[in-house]
Design a protein that fits this description.
Blueprint: E1 9-12, E2 14-16, H1 24-28, E3 32-34, E4 42-45, H2 57-62, E5 66-68, E6 87-94, E7 97-103, E8 112-121, H3 124-132, E9 134-135, E10 138-139, E11 144-145, E12 149-157, E13 169-172, E14 175-176, H4 182-185, E15 196-197, E16 210-214, E17 218-220, H5 227-245, E18 253-257, H6 261-272, E19 277-283, H7 287-295, E20 300-304, H8 310-321, E21 325-330, H9 335-344, E22 345-353, H10 365-370, E23 374-377, H11 385-393, E24 403-408, H12 412-421, E25 426-430
Parallel strand pairs: 18-19, 18-21, 19-20, 21-22, 22-23, 24-25
Antiparallel strand pairs: 1-4, 2-5, 3-4, 6-7, 6-11, 8-12, 8-16, 8-25, 9-10, 12-13, 13-17, 14-15
Helix pairs in contact: 5-6, 5-11, 8-9
Keywords: Metal-binding, NAD, Oxidoreductase, Zinc
InterPro entries: ADH-like_C, ADH-like_N, ADH_Zn_CS, ER, GroES-like_sf, NAD(P)-bd_dom_sf, SDH-like
Domain Enoyl reductase (ER): 94-429
């Protein structure tokens, strides 16, 4: 190799078998691929120290690369169909400060695709960021792109991506682990401490025209599945994970607290998993949502009034179920919901906490312990997109009735107002004209 200045090094090689999702990712994104006079792929980088290490980027990569020389004409970093439009995004700057701003159009890393986002549902966690500046340890520390219930169209493909091509319609799983920590190796990527979970304080969401994401977290949609249904796979995957964690079985008697989108999806999933009797509870003022629960097949719905006592609600639940609940999915995160969940559950039953609400609660723990009630939690999902896709694409479940409102990206502030007020169920933001990417028109 010719002599190369200290500050800039070039090597003619094709990088294979990268550490796809580890700490190399942040350095890889800054590297520059270019073709010079010779027909070889040339890899340019600048020497810079790695964090917490005396090694350089070159030292770090040289240990991870298999180096071969290949003709440039046989190697393409990505498709030539690159997005050229402006990338408008819904960015939260603080409580009740949501702005539509232009951000850079991303380029894909070797293991990513760039997506033109079509539809994006508004989730309660998005509302928490906008209204309260976050939730738990996820606090707003910078302007943050919101949104994560999305589906889009592949517009650009990284060099190592083989299962997707430009034009494919995909559902986007917005949570990915680092792939190298103990949690990821144990199969718990959903709670990886350094993973790419969108949106969280360190990672933008995808309510933007264009979004780069790991290709293996993008699931190709069949032609008969609409983009809106693709976006709904995200909350559906939450419901699937909750149902699995709660071990819902054939003949289970299930109580669901909360008739919001996650509560209603949990109802759909519980019935799909074999629950034969289901009761949904919510505040009396949420009567329209309780009516939807009834239409979706709930055995009974119970409106909760301001004067209702715990004992009375427990009695009404057991009367509707014909006995205590086998499983409870608590989707409100409220102290009353958790307390009644424990009290309404049979001995050795399972209470699954799904919703985010009160940060601290007082619970009847002696009752729970003495009756050996399992109290478990769920966060996001854990490889549940394939199952969610299957039950939707096969027609086993229908999630379309959950969509109550449609807004264009230009009206994103009004969309968030409706979502936060509880006026509707699932509020869908369209970043492209409705049905422009649907072979079959969305009807619900």
């Amino acid at each position: 190799m010719e002599s190369i200045p200290e500050e800039e090094h070039e090597m003619r090689f094709l990088a294979l078998n990268f550490d796809s999702y580890g700490s190399t990712q942040k350095h890889f994104r800054g590297l520059d691929f270019s073709e010079k006079e010779e027909p070889w792929l040339r890899f340019r980088y600048k020497r810079c120290p790695l964090e917490g290490s005396g090694k350089t980027v070159f030292d770090f990569f040289s240990a991870l690369l298999v180096v071969v020389v290949v003709p440039w004409k046989n190697f393409s970093v990505c498709s030539d169909m690159a997005p050229t439009q402006h990338n408008m995004a819904a960015v939260c700057y603080g409580p009740d400060d949501l702005r539509l701003v232009s951000i850079p159009v991303p380029e894909p890393a070797f293991n990513e695709v760039v997506l033109e986002v079509d539809s994006c549902g508004i989730c309660g966690t998005d509302v928490h960021f906008l209204k309260e500046g976050g939730f738990g340890d996820q606090k707003l520390i910078r302007p943050l792109v919101l949104g994560h219930e999305s589906a889009g169209v592949v517009r650009k493909v990284g060099s190592s991506v083989t299962h997707l091509k430009v034009g494919d319609r995909v559902a986007i799983e917005p949570a990915a682990g680092c792939r190298t920590c103990d949690l990821c190796k144990a199969g718990k990527y959903n709670v990886c401490l350094t993973g790419k979970h969108c949106p969280t304080k360190n990672h933008d969401g995808n309510c933007s025209n264009y979004f780069a994401h790991y290709a293996d977290c993008c699931f190709k949609l069949p032609d008969h599945v609409t983009m809106e249904e693709g976006a709904l796979l995200e909350p559906l995957a939450v419901g699937v994970y909750a149902g699995r964690r709660a071990d819902i079985r054939l003949g289970s008697r299930v109580v669901i607290f909360g008739a919001g989108p996650i509560g209603l999806i949990s109802l759909i999933v519980a019935r799909a998993m074999g629950a034969t009797r289901t009761v949904v509870l919510d505040l009396a003022r949420a009567s329209k949502r309780l009516e939807v629960a009834k239409k979706l097949g709930a055995t009974a719905v119970i409106p909760i009034g301001a004067e209702d006592k715990e004992d009375d609600l427990v009695a009404r639940i057991q009367q509707a179920l014909g006995g205590p609940a086998d499983r409870v999915l608590e989707c409100t995160g409220s102290q009353p919901g958790m307390r009644i969940s424990i009290r309404a559950t049979r001995n050795a039953g399972i209470v699954c906490l799904v919703g985010l609400g009160n940060e601290e609660v007082q619970l009847p723990m002696v009752d729970a312990i003495s009756r050996e009630i399992q109290i478990i939690t769920v966060m996001r999902y854990n490889h549940d997109y394939p199952a969610a896709m299957e039950i939707v694409s096969s027609g086993y479940v229908d999630v379309k009735p959950l969509v109550s409102h449609h807004f264009s990206l230009q009206d994103v502030n009004e969309a968030f107002r409706v979502a936060a007020s509880g006026e509707g169920l699932k509020v869908m933001v369209h970043l492209t004209p409705r049905d422009s990417n649907n072979p079959v028109k969305f009807v619900n």
